[in-house]
Amino acid sequence: MTLETHALAARNLGLPGVRHAFFTREGGVSEGVYASLNGGVGSRDAPPLVAENRARMAARLGVDAERLLVPFQIHSADALAVHEPWSADARPRCDGVVTTEVSLALGVTGADCGMLLFADVKARVVGACHAGWKGALGGVIEATVAQMEAQGAHRADIHVALGPAIGATSYEVGPEFVARFRDADESFSRFFAPTAREGHATFDLPSFIASRVEALDVGSFEDLGVDTYADEARCFSYRRSVHRREPDYGRLVSAIALI
């Protein structure tokens, strides 16, 4: 029996004229380490299975499969406006996308990195961005909001939600990582907590992302509070796959569309 494609929703994005989904790993056709709703075209999963999974996601969002768009993510601070579908071999290399087009779903993938969805229903602008530590530190969230503003959005009307991401207690980092953040801003020390290993610390990526969003004075922010590493039943996790020495890992998809 095929499981129903499963997705989480943010309360603050339950807005008229908008449909969104933070898809879990449940309800797809992939197998093994990719079981079952793997949306990662960059994984080594069979392409026809990923295509079927993506088609199920598109159907859940109420758009045609070719109108669910996910960029080629590069951990950058680059965001762009999208007005029409692109072909599978012409995905733009960026980590934030926004649109004013109806029935064009924009998504990002993640397997520990933060996935954020944005909506301004007054201006009819939506967006998505992929914010790992590098993108969040580099400014991808700010770049996505700036692109929304360029399309007519207003910060006070933008609602933002963070989907599944690696939690603070699951994310241990080394001294070089900590130093990189402290060199950028000493106040970033508050996002780290020491561990038993000398020089190591846990990093609270969701709280760091929240601080970046809240500094923008947007209309609202919601964190779903789902730890990708700890919640194996619902989430893929790159770090968990490394710790288990698995050959590869699946990718979650989070997406939003104007309807």
User: Tally the helices: what do you get?
Assistant: 6
State the CATH superfamily name. Answer: CNF1/YfiH-like putative cysteine hydrolases
Order of helices and strands: EEHEEEEEEHHEEHEEHEHE
Q: Into how many domains do the coordinates divide?
A: 1
Over all CA atoms, what is the radius of gyration?
Answer: 17 Å
The number of E-state strands comes to 14
The structure class reads alpha+beta
Arithmetic mean of pLDDT: 97
In what order do the strands lie side by side in the largest sheet?
Answer: 4-5-8-7-9-13
The major sheet is characterized as: 6 strands, mixed
The CATH architecture term is 4-Layer Sandwich
The low-confidence parts are none
Query: Can you give the helix content as a percent range?
Result: 10-25%
What portion of residues belong to β-strands? 15-25%
CATH topology: CNF1/YfiH-like putative cysteine hydrolases
What general form does the structure show?
globular
| CATH class call | Alpha Beta
What does the secondary structure layout of this molecule look like, with pairings?
Blueprint: E1 7-8, E2 18-23, H1 47-61, E3 68-69, E4 79-81, E5 96-99, E6 105-110, E7 114-120, E8 125-131, H2 133-138, H3 140-150, E9 159-162, E10 172-173, H4 175-184, E11 192-194, E12 201-203, H5 205-214, E13 220-223, H6 238-243, E14 252-258
Parallel strand pairs: 3-6, 4-5, 9-13
Antiparallel strand pairs: 1-2, 2-14, 5-8, 6-14, 7-8, 7-9, 10-12, 11-12
Structure report:
This protein is an alpha+beta fold and 259 residues long. It has a single domain (7-167, 204-258), classed as 4-Layer Sandwich (CNF1/YfiH-like putative cysteine hydrolases), CATH 3.60.140. The protein is built from 6 helices and 14 strands. Strand 7 and strand 8 form a beta hairpin.
